[in-house]
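Researcher: We're teaching a course module on how sequence relates to structure. For the next exercise, students receive a sequence and then see the predicted structure as C-alpha cells, so they can try to spot secondary structure elements on their own. Here is the exercise chain.
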Amino acid sequence: MITVFNDLDTLYKKAADTFVELSERAIQKHDKFVVALSGGSSPKAIFNLLATEEYSQKIEWNKVYFFWVDERWVPLNDEKSNAKMTFEALFNKVPVNKDHIFPMYKDGVEPEDYAKEYEKQIKNILGEEGIFDFILLGMGDDGHTASLFPGEAILDEKEKWVDAYYLKPQEMFRITLTAPIINKAENILVVAFGESKKHALNEVLNGEYNPKLYPLQLIERKEGFQFFTDEKAKG
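Model: And here is the predicted structure for the students to work with:
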C-alpha cells in the first residue's frame, strides 16, 4: 500500500503511529516485538518522535528487540554509524533493555565473519524462521535499499540472511540484511520522499522488473508492506 503525504511532519507521525500499533500487536501475539531499523535522516525523525513522552509511554520498551537493516563498517562511536544515531535519537531517551540491542558492528572482527555471527544472533531471537515483526527501510536516489546497491553481487543472494562486502564506490565495507530475510518480515515500511527520489521511485513502482538496476524491486509488495512518500517524489 502506497500512501502519499502532503507534509513530512504528518508522514513521520504516521510512521511513529505504525511502530506503536505493530508493537502492541506483536507483544499481544508473542510477548515481544522484533524490529530491524534503518539509518538516515528519515528514521532519525521517526526515532525522535518515538522518544517523546506522547509516544514513549505507549511502548513496552523492555519487550522490544532491535536489529539493524544495514550498517557502514565503522566503530559505534563513528559519526557514520547508524547505531550511534539511533542511540542518540532514541535508545538513550527511553527505557530499552540494552541486552535487546544488536548493533551491526563488532571491534576486532572481520565484517564477513561478523555477518555470520549476526545471523546467529537473529536466529537466537527469531528461530530458524527468521520472521521480523517489523522492518523499516529507506530508498536511495539510485533505488537501493539497505546496503543492496545496484549491480552488486549481493542482489543475487538466496541463502544468507546477512552478508558483508566491500562497496568500491564508497571505499568501505557494508554489512546488510539480504532480500530473502527482509521479505520474510511480517510488516515492512519503506519511507522515501523528495524530488531527488522521483525517478527511482517511478521505476521501482511502475517500471520493468530490473532489480539489478533498482534493488528495492527485490522487496515484495505483499500484505504488510507499506510505502510512505510525498507528492514531490510520487509526482
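Model: If you want an answer key for the exercise: Residues 2-234 form a domain with the Rossmann fold fold (CATH 3.40.50.1360). The mean pLDDT is 95.
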